[in-house]
Specification:
Helix content: 40-55%
Number of strands: 5
Strand order of the largest sheet: 3-2-1-4-5
Largest sheet: 5 strands, mixed
CATH architecture: 2-Layer Sandwich
Number of helices: 9
Low-confidence stretches: 1-9
Mean pLDDT: 91
Shape: globular
Length: 225
């Protein structure tokens, strides 16, 4: 990966973050669609700008999806399609110094499926910090107790981060993600390239550990680590 525009020895935590979150009609990035998109700028522990909008997915929103995020067909009636806001959104992505998310691969898969090369070009060369991976570090929340202990709501409670707005709405989730990550920033190296590389390697390690656990506990996925 190339690293354009990042000064040598920059501290990623002092740079401008852009946290991205989506709400969707389901979990399959090929079949399902985005119904809400948010991007929040964050710097030095403070929210600088919030951008969020409902998106017309072009398909009915299933009841099971509405049960998670509360968005209904009537809520998105008259909203723009993702194609209509794509260029404005991607301009913010291109301008970001650091990209942040909570379970980044989920949102990135939906945005790549919808925006293709535009998305890939916009994120090229940017460090990506996935707060979920950091929460799951052994020295952070690996041994927290309870089902769903690594979900964003649980991480916020554990770390004393207060919610603004409703959980599972994109803009509110972005704000809380940034504040969670801000509290955990010292668990990553300051160099953005090293931080990105560590998150990537840890995500792979965590996934392998989960797959090994699932193989040993095939009936217990609901309480997975």
């Amino acid at each position: 990966m190339l690293w354009y525009g990042i000064r040598e020895m920059s501290d990623w935590s002092s740079m401008t973050w852009l946290c991205i979150d989506t709400e969707t009609t389901g979990v399959d990035p090929i079949r399902d669609r985005v119904v809400e998109l948010a991007a929040v700028q964050f710097r030095g522990g403070e929210v600088q700008r919030r951008m969020g909008m409902l998106i017309q997915p072009g398909v009915p929103i299933p009841e099971e999806a509405t049960a998670v995020h509360g968005i209904r067909d009537e809520d998105v009636a008259g909203s723009p399609t993702l194609a209509q806001v794509q260029e404005r959104f991607l301009a913010h992505v291109r301008a970001a110094e650091v990209l942040v998310g909570y379970n980044w691969p989920f949102d990135a898969a939906f945005l790549e499926a919808a925006m293709g090369e535009g998305w890939r070009e916009a994120i090229e060369g940017k460090p990506v910090i996935d707060a979920l991976v950091v929460v799951r570090f052994d020295q952070v929340g690996r041994y927290w107790k309870g089902s769903g202990r690594h979900q964003l709501e649980s991480a916020a409670r554990q770390l004393g981060v207060e919610w603004e707005g409703r959980a599972h709405r994109a803009s509110a989730d972005c704000v809380v993600t940034c504040r969670v990550l801000w509290k955990l920033r010292e668990h990553l190296p300051s160099d953005p390239r090293q931080a990105d590389a560590l998150v990537r390697s840890e995500r792979e390690r965590q996934q392998k550990a989960f797959e090994a656990w699932r193989s040993a506990h095939p009936r217990d996925d609901a309480t997975s680590p």
